[in-house]
Specification:
alpha/beta; Arginase, Chain A; binds manganese (II) ion
Length: about 325
């Protein structure tokens, strides 16, 4: 591969190659690796987008293992130029679909190890950032671990921006420490995430007990509930958090269940209320100016998504997340 590849990813021209033809990749990005569509220089890659088709960590309805396929399919209509941020992600970033991480369907722990080992090697470890598509939220741990290692093992852990209906800091469920209710308590315990630089946005009840809030309170995790967002008191606190980040890289994790099931029914632990599709897009746009270390988007469950609206929203959220990085790289 030539070292002087022009900046950005070249997408198939949709005026020549229809969006509904060919093999699905995330947002029609080229495939990383040895396949017939491989045309990307791994050394130049800015983002590797890959699936982790695993849902053995769920505490309620399974099916998110089919999420990566559904999001790939829905993402064929994602276009690269961002109207509001005035940035073209394909012209700015080298991006590729890196396929799916290996999974061990009967073991969350083994899946996380296998997925992290896969992610650790993708593209150019010193340059390429990782965007994982789940899968249930347990998979975030693997992508966070690989990201933390590849971004130079920042001491004290990465800051975390977390969009979710749920806290995901439960210690154990059914005596199991590795579930989709626990990725952030494990990431904090293992020094991958700094709880004092963690914000969870979109939290809503009911909870199992009031003590579900204790871990976050004791460790300095900030939360903005869906209700606080609705009344407007959350906006200033989110802006404060973003301003505090300064130039430090932050990991972004987006659980699609932070969106109201009226807009995103295809998820395994739905909670009434929450963001509209438009608010979800605006939440990401509000983060313009931050520097990303990596990201994930999780909990899309196609079997409960009869119109495909959940996967469609998820696919556009991927582009919104990448647009943040495109913006940061053009203003660097
Ligand atoms: Mn979650």
């Amino acid at each position: 591969m030539p070292k002087d590849t022009p900046r950005g990813t070249s997408l198939p021209d949709s005026r020549r190659t229809p969006r509904f033809a060919g093999v699905n990749t995330f947002c029609r990005f080229p495939m990383l690796g040895d396949g017939p569509a491989a045309e990307i220089d791994p050394e130049q890659l800015d983002w590797a987008i890959y699936g982790i088709p695993y849902d053995g960590g769920v505490t309620f309805r399974p099916g998110a293992r089919f999420g990566p396929r559904a999001v790939r399919e829905a993402s064929q209509y994602v276009k690269p130029y961002h109207l509001e941020l005035d940035v073209d992600i394909a012209a700015t970033l080298h991006m590729a679909d890196a396929g799916d991480a290996p999974v061990r369907p009967y073991s969350t722990r083994e899946t996380l190890e296998a997925a992290a080992a896969f992610a650790r090697e993708l593209g150019n470890p010193g340059r390429t950032k990782l965007l994982a598509v789940g899968g249930d939220h347990s998979i975030a741990y693997a992508n966070i671990q690989a990201t933390w290692e590849r971004r130079g093992r920042p001491e004290g852990g990465l800051p975390l921006l977390h969009f979710d209906a749920h806290l995901d800091t439960v210690d154990t469920v059914w005596d199991e420490k590795w579930t989709h209710a626990s990725p952030f308590i494990r990431a904090i315990e293992n020094g991958l995430i700094n709880p004092k630089r963690m914000l969870s946005v979109g939290i809503r009840g009911p909870l199992n007990t009031a003590s579900d809030l204790d871990y976050g309170k004791a460790h300095g995790v900030r939360i903005i509930t869906a209700r606080q967002w609705e009344t407007g008191e959350g906006i200033e606190r989110m802006d404060d958090f973003l301003a505090e980040l300064g130039k430090d890289e932050v990991y972004l994790t987006f659980d699609i269940d932070c969106v109201d099931p009226a807009f995103a029914p295809g998820t395994g632990t739905p909670c009434p209320g929450g963001f509209t599709s438009n608010e979800a897009l605006e939440l990401i746009r509000r983060c313009a100016g931050i520097r990303l270390a990596g990201a994930d988007l999780v909990e899309v469950l196609p079997d409960r998504d009869p119109s495909g609206s959940t996967a469609l929203l998820a696919s556009h959220l991927l582009a919104e997340i990448l647009a943040l990085d495109a913006l940061a790289s053009t203003s660097a």
